[in-house]
Amino acid sequence: MPVAIVTGSDSGIGKATAVMLAERGFDLGITWHTDEDGARGTVSEVQDMGRRAEVRRVDLSNVSEGGRVVAELADALGGIDVLVNNAGTGSSSPFLEVSLEDWRHVLDVDLTAAFCAGQEAARRMMSGGRGGRIVNVTSVHEHVPLPGSSAYCAAKGGLGLLTKVMALELAEHGITVNAVAPGEIATPMTGQHEEDPGQNERPGIPARRPGAAREIAAAIAFLASPEASYVTGESFVVDGGLTLMAAVRNLE
Q1: Whether residue 230 lies in the annotated active site
Q2: Looking at 33, 152, 155, 224, which residue is catalytic?
Q3: b/e per residue 153-172 (b: at least 16 CB within 10 A)
Q4: How many angstroms separate the Cα of 250 from the Cα of each of 28, 89, 242, 246?
Q5: Range of the domain at 166
Q6: pTM of structure
Q7: What is the pLDDT of residue 245?
Q8: How confident is the model at residue 70 (pLDDT cuts 50, 70, 90)?
Q9: Which of 185, 174, 192 is nearest to 86 (CA)?
Q10: How many distinct structural domains can be found in the chain?
């Protein structure tokens, strides 16, 4: 069976992605940092579909843990075909008030740990000889700035360009590397606890609502599929038209 590892799959986008990939026949490697119950819930849903699941706790502020957990899960599951670098964090402080400690923490978790995980996954995909898929979950703030989020924007922008370099270098080995850049999604990270996004009016978004985690998972699952074998080095923005609003504002 094909194997996918999804970091931060205890809730939100990561959980939805793990479940959707299990629906499509993957065995799953699942990671969590603070929500063990959430991770166990993901494991249960994966196993209910007849797929294997391995779960590990990981603290990606220790950046080398990104590579270690990929290696450990790949060994337990018998290989790796897909890596989804989903785990992340953020901070909200004006640029002049961001401490060096907070800056480093966000870049370590969102960028450097993803680099370490991607490097380990790519090496194993190459040695396996079957190619593979790496999907890095960035943000619309890979592309547009957000006041008060200098570290987060720097990390996601860096991950977006890292995605392109990885895609260039790994294409000859049959490995595609793409980013998915979500807009506002109804998940615990945005304080919405996975409620129905249709109930939350968003006048500033053309779709008039936040997105659902499963909508992001569908984009990731496509990029992980054989149908996406000719797509690499791209950033797939899934934001309900949020980034289009810059054009509207420029006309006002």
Answers
A1: no
A2: 152
A3: bbbbbbbbebbbebbeebee
A4: 45, 31, 14, 6
A5: 3-251
A6: 0.93
A7: 87
A8: very high
A9: 185
A10: 1
